[in-house]
Amino acid sequence: MSRTTLDLWVGFFVAVGLGALLFLALKVGNLASSSSGETYTISAEFDNIGGLKVRGAVKSAGVVVGRVTNIQLDSQSFNAVVTLNIDARYKFPRDTFVTINTSGLLGEQYIGFKAGGDPETWKPGALIKKTQSAVVLEELISKFMFNKAAEDDGKK
Amino acid sequence: MSQESLVEIRDLNFTYDSRPVLTGINMTIPRGKVVAVMGISGCGKTTTLRLIGGQLKPTSGEVRVGGQVVHELDADGLYDLRRRMGMLFQFGALFTDMSVFDNIAFQMREHTDLPETMIRDLVLMKLHAVGLRGAHDLMPTELSGGMARRVALARAIALDPMLIMYDEPFAGLDPISLSIVGELIRKLTDALGASSIVVTHDVQESLKIVDYVYFVSEGKIVAEGTAEEMKHSTVPYVHQFIWGEADGPVAFQYPARPYGEELMERAARRG
Amino acid sequence: MDNGLTRVLRQLGAQFSSRIWRLGYASRFFLAIMLHSGTSLRRIHLTIREVYFTGVLSLIIILVSGLFVGMVLGLQGYDTLARYGSTEALGVLVALSLVRELGPVVSALLFASRAGSAITAEIGMMKATEQLSAMEMMAVDPIARVVAPRFWGGVISMPLLAALFSAMGVFGGYLVGVQLIGVDEGSFWSQMQASVDFREDVLNGVIKSFVFGIIVSWVAVFEGYDAEPTAEGVSGATTRTVVTSSLAILAADFILTAFMFTGT
Predict the structure, then answer these.
(1) Which pLDDT score is estimated for C153?
(2) Both A1 and A52 in a single domain?
(3) CB < 8 Å to A3, chain C
(4) What mean pLDDT comes out for the span B203-219?
(5) What residue of C is the nearest CA neighbor of B158?
(6) Containing domain of residue A13, as a range?
């Protein structure tokens, strides 16, 4: 095997290998869409974050506008404090409703923004307390059973 | 260098795994001479070559090459020394992944900055000296035993060494190749003004070409002298070796219990 | 009874300590490779040659295996997901299984048996025919000239082969899932893109394959260099290369996975 043929094959191999890596990064993974642009940080307080995880999505009208970067417990109020990184292109009104939603029936949980109408927008670093916590299945069931029991009582 | 001898070995002892391989060896290899080290297989001959080349360190005693003590050399010193030594390994040890040409050019390319045109001339010259200039494009696997041995010889003298060592150069060769290799060893040593150490147990070929012989048995030198002296030696081991006698100091029977005893035992078991 | 037990214990102890000794020897050998790697860089052609012999010549087996593994994932994945009505997640299942685990691990195991054993056999045979000794006597360090380039050739080839395996696997899953079975093409790719993170999944997979490459190359060159210079010795060494590197890959995979993919 002459030197040039060998070099040709190795070059081909390395090129194809890097191509596969690129394919995995762009087409399979989310390198293209992950924002490397400017972001700003805000925090939100929740009674219960349910199954929300760090790196979970922040969506508004179904469009991903940011990521969850940190989840901590406030040792005074015993509420969950979630830190969010929002794409700097999007500014949200101060009365935007922040909820924790589930994608699909058994899907992952994500933060949803329902924009309000306030002309003033959130400042970076703001702490949002107007939130709706995650739906916890057990509480839902016990509430249902409690209501059912109250109904039956009322009927009697 | 005004010294007469190129290699001097004094009171050399070498032990491997608490087994004594060489004991009290004293040898002198003068410049420009071909010296044979003979003995039966496993008596320590190849170990001597490895000690001279610095691949092994002596347990005690010293080996001097060109006035320097080999095992006291640092990496650079050993590198320099080995550049001036050539070694012909048993069965050749040619690099199987490169052609004959590249095998011989190997040392030139590794250790010198000579341009490729010059290397080509030198390689062809070395191959011509061993009669294989036409085979320079072949791969080692395409060579016969005798041809491979000659290529390895050309490789050993690639950098015109001052000391050439041969580990069983005659092993497994046909009669024609035998005499060719013997002739080449003598001719090249004289042409280069080098010294040669031939480790062998081929009596006929080596006694034709060597100047001096050392006989080794069980790690000790039992006899030394010129080829003529050895032929008329009265030392029993040397006599048995040179005349190829079946029994003598080197016993025919491998150590075992008395024959009669073993037969009786087997008969008793059967009966 | 007592004698038999002590004998067994002594044998186990001896085996254990001899393995520890061998590990120490192999570690010093690894250090020697690192120290002598200058030649592999300065005479890059030596390394390129080894990338050819370990990487290019492994392409066929890696690509074909990747394709088949991906296709099987497509079949099995569809069958399982269909039970929960989540067949649009097939792309996610195939991609994550490959990129995180199967790509690096299976390609490393294949690499160990194809390229690893070849390296061991080659170096072992060179030792047996005294070529390494000859090189030493010619003042050329065999570790720098023969061992190190083969080590780096393997380390370079491994991540590339793993990426190719995963890519072929995703394609195989696509062929089976979308073309054959009829899963929606759009959701196959979009869900995959949404769930496979470059840093967490793809990059971690690459790191894994890089670590595996080091393991396989190290074991392969060491076993070859340390082989008994006989036919049985070389054959035993090649077997040990495949077995030892396979076990080490699986163990390392567990440790790396525990670090990378668990916890928040």
Answers:
(1) 95
(2) no
(3) 45
(4) 88
(5) C138
(6) 1-34
